[in-house]
Amino acid sequence: MARPKEFEVEIAVAKAASVFREHGYEGTSAQMLVDAMGIGRQSLYDTFGDKWGVYRAALTHYCHNECSAHRDTLHHAERAIDGIRAMFARVVERSSEGCLGLGSIVEFGCRHSELTEIRDRSGRFLMQVVSDAVSRAQAEGDLSGELNRDHASGFLISAIASIRVAARGGAPSSQLKAIADFTIRGLR
Amino acid sequence: MARPKEFEVEIAVAKAASVFREHGYEGTSAQMLVDAMGIGRQSLYDTFGDKWGVYRAALTHYCHNECSAHRDTLHHAERAIDGIRAMFARVVERSSEGCLGLGSIVEFGCRHSELTEIRDRSGRFLMQVVSDAVSRAQAEGDLSGELNRDHASGFLISAIASIRVAARGGAPSSQLKAIADFTIRGLR
DNA sequence: CCCATTCTTGAACGATCATTCAATAAGGAG
DNA sequence: CTCCTTATTGAATGATCGTTCAAGAATGGG
User: Fold this and answer.
1) Which residues of chain A make contact with B173, given a CB cutoff of 8 A?
2) Which burial class, exposed, middle or buried, applies to B48 when counting CB atoms under 10 A from its CB (0-12, 13-18, 19+)?
3) pLDDT tens digit sequence for B84-131
4) Which of B163, B160, B175, B169 minimizes the C-alpha distance to B63?
């Protein structure tokens, strides 16, 4: 009942996320959020409570989207190893934009359980889909059959982070591709 | 001439660095620096100009120390591959403390040339010593002789970042060690 | 010993921060 | 249509931010 919002919350959250991706939490002011989200200040506080609430919503949104994208990319290839390659290729392609997961890890570590819960939930999901891809790639003879699957999957996921760090530090895409290639080599 | 400082600049810089390592630039206030460095506010501003000057000094100090440590670790082993392993082992051991290089990359990207210059100088130094170790390891038959040495060295360095990201995200040290092992496997 | 210079101390500065108040506008339920 | 609830608007809040001013303390050169 009563008056409905003039903006769509999910769109506003997506816009907030792109600000946080570029400037981090502390580097983003409430004014920057108001400008980027295109909503009034009071609407922001009514909807999200405070700046921290906006950040949590943005991180949740980002992690969910990113996980879905990884899962889809892994599934859209016939051979599992090609799905893994495609996942890295996508990471390289989009590496010019900051990663909110990486940003929140580096900025806050494990200090806030609210954040670690969001990240860990996505982390477990990602581990599952990657681990599944590793299994299939092993069965298809493209990866070694003797490796610890959890550690191998964690290694692949950590390589995603390393590509994004390298990109944000200014590395050329040839170097990013090399990281992906060497990473897969490590599991062969 | 005139009155000498009551504090040692390098020690103060080291203390500042440890604050920035934990909280980043924007997450660190001048008051936090004053408390941690154990000097007066005006002494801070007289010596470093502003908060940004403290950060530059801290990053420079940190990068220099880190580079030296990596070089020493790489040199102290008889076989080059053991030096590389020792380098990773050291990174794993110290992974509970944040990395200022990683922090500055993630927080600022390439926005400030003052920072990229500091990082790139250390990056080139690190590339040299790692590349040298790779060469020797190749000559000693412990790494493949057919890989692009620059890309391989960049891969090793990026793996250091990935270990630190994983650690800050809460990964157990068994996972960190696995990252190091798989990384070396990729170059074999 | 004394003066010029620099360091330290402690209070203060305006600016910006996140957040909220008060008032107006607008849609849905009855 | 009317009323209750909620959204929007715009100004204002106190707190904290980075930075500086003013005054006193201390040191080395002459």
Assistant:
1) none
2) buried
3) 999 999 999 999 999 999 999 999 999 999 999 999 999 999 999 999
4) B160
Q: Give SS3 for B84.
A: helix
Residues of A with a Cβ under 8 Å from any B Cβ are 22, 24, 26-27, 98, 102-103, 105-107, 109-110, 116, 119-120, 123, 148, 151-152, 154-155, 158-159, 161-163, 165-166, 168-171, 174-175, 178-179, 182-187
Q: Does domain B9-185 have CATH number 3.40.50.1970?
A: no
Fold of A60-185: Tetracycline Repressor; domain 2 (1.10.357)
User: Which residues fall within 8 angstroms of residue A154, CB to CB, at 6 or more apart?
Assistant: A127, B166, B171, B175, B178, B179
Closest Cα partner for A160 from A107, A75, A80, A101? A101
**Residue from A20, A28, A106, A175 whose CB has the most chain B CBs within 10 Å, to mutate:** A106
Which of A55, A158, A173 to mutate against chain B (most B CBs within 10 Å)? A158
pTM to 2 decimals? 0.96
Element (H, E) at A34: helix A30-37
Q: Show residues of chain B in contact with A119, CB under 8 Å.
A: 169
A107-135 pLDDT tens trace = 999 999 999 999 999 999 999 999 999 99
pLDDT in tens, A58-68: 999 999 999 99
What is the H or E stretch that residue A14 is in?
helix A9-23
Map out the domains of chain B as residue ranges: 9-185
User: What type of residue is B36?
Assistant: A
Those residues with Cβ within 8 angstroms of residue A3's Cβ, 6 or more apart along the chain or in another chain = none
Residue type, A106: V
